[in-house]
Amino acid sequence: MNNSILLRSAFLFLLGFIFSVHLATAQDQQERKVIQLSGIILNADSTDAVAGVNVYVPKKGRGTSSGRFGYFSMPVLEGDSVVFSFIGLKRQTFKVPETVENDRISLILTMEVDEIALAEIEVMPYPTEEEFKQAVIAMNVVDPMSISRANMSPEMLLRWAESMPASGGENFRYFQQGQVLQNQDLYGPRPLRLLDPFAWSQFIRSIKRGDLKKRD
């Protein structure tokens, strides 16, 4: 009988304690005024806006991030600690005043670069210096001038010229020739070059000059 009374008393005490804590928390939330915190986040070295900065109240589950132009806006309570964090920048904390006359707070926050100094590291692909020296001596170094001479040879330049696509001027000239032929086709058949005396005269002159021999 005494044990049941003790258990009931302990249960009622625990229930009353939980209710009082919940009531105190609710009263604290009601007494603290909601403030709309907004502002712009800039880089300390310039006036460039910083986008994607995490803005949050720890352990409260409230947060946001700065937009494209560094602007942010979120509701907070009086006395909250707002944290601003971004990779590569120093974390900052803003403490909301306990009593705020207005229901809005505007900030212009500048964040500095978080520089981390690392010790000098020497990277060697060989375990010892002696092996490195032997590998350097055994290297087969090709003279860069011989490579450039081979690339500038007439045979190589001719091969590159043959494989190169037509330039803009050549494409335009071919286009103009096609337009002329289309206009000629509208008014009759194309002229036969074998019956053109001017073409025959040009052909005879080219033979006398030896143009065909030069091409061979």
How are the SSEs ordered, and which strands pair?
Blueprint: H1 2-31, E1 34-43, E2 54-57, E3 62-65, E4 71-77, E5 81-86, E6 89-95, E7 104-111, H2 129-137, H3 144-151, H4 154-163, H5 168-187, H6 197-209, H7 211-215
Parallel strand pairs: 1-7
Antiparallel strand pairs: 1-4, 2-3, 2-5, 5-6
Describe the fold and architecture.
It is a single chain. With 216 residues, the protein is an alpha+beta fold. Among the domains are: 34-111, Carboxypeptidase-like, regulatory domain (Immunoglobulin-like), CATH 2.60.40.1120; 152-189, no CATH class. 44% of the residues lie in helices and 21% in strands. It has seven helices and seven strands; from the N terminus they run H-E-E-E-E-E-E-E-H-H-H-H-H-H. Strand 5 and strand 6 (89-95) form a beta hairpin. The radius of gyration is 43 Å and the shape is elongated. The N and C termini lie far apart (126 Å). This is CarboxypepD_reg-like domain-containing protein. Pfam families: CarbopepD_reg_2. Residues 1-26 form the signal peptide.
